[in-house]
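Duplicate of #3305? Posting structure anyway:
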C-alpha cells in the first residue's frame, strides 16, 4: 500500500536546527512543504514520480540521477532522454536535490541536471552561462517521460 500524503509531505516549521527543513547537500537553502489533506493515496491519484530539474542549463550531456542505486525512475528518465535525442551521463547515489525528499518517503524520484559548474551559487552564476541547447535537452526529456 502506498503511503498517504500526510505520511509523505510534512510542514516543517519547528525552527529546530535538526528539523528536516533543509535541502540536503545544497548549503542548507530552506524549503517548505505543506501537508496535503487527501483521503486517497498518491498511487491512486496517478502520481508517476517527481523529477527535479536542477542545474540543467550547463553541460553538453544531460546528467540523469537516482537517489540511490539504479532504479525504475532513473531507467524511465534514461529511456525518455534517448527518445528525445539527448546524450546522458547516468549517475547514482545523488541525494543533493529536491527529489531525495520524495524518494526518502517512498515515492519515485529522479534528477535531471547537476553538471559540474565552478560558478554555481557565486557572483559568476548569471543567466548568460545558461546554454539554451542544454535546457532544451532537459525539456525534451521531461516531455518524452510524460508521454
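Output from current build:
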Amino acid at each position: 500500500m502506498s503511503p498517504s500524503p500526510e505520511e509523505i509531505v510534512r510542514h516543517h516549521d519547528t525552527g529546530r536546527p535538526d528539523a528536516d527543513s533543509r535541502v540536503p547537500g545544497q548549503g542548507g537553502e530552506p524549503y517548505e512543504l505543506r501537508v496535503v489533506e487527501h483521503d486517497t493515496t498518491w498511487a491512486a491519484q496517478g502520481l508517476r514520480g517527481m523529477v527535479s530539474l536542477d542545474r540543467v542549463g550547463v553541460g553538453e550531456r544531460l546528467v540523469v540521477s537516482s537517489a540511490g542505486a539504479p532504479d525504475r525512475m532513473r531507467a524511465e528518465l534514461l529511456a525518455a532522454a534517448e527518445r528525445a535525442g539527448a546524450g546522458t551521463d547516468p549517475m547514482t547515489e545523488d541525494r543533493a536535490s529536491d527529489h531525495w525528499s520524495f524518494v526518502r518517503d517512498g515515492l519515485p524520484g529522479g534528477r535531471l541536471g547537476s553538471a559540474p559548474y565552478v560558478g554555481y551559487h557565486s557572483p559568476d552564476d548569471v543567466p548568460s552561462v545558461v546554454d539554451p541547447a542544454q535546457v532544451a535537452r532537459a525539456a525534451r526529456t521531461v516531455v518524452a517521460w510524460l508521454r
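Confirmed duplicate; merging threads. The radius of gyration is 16 Å. The domain at 5-119+126-146 is CATH 3.40.630.10 (Aminopeptidase).
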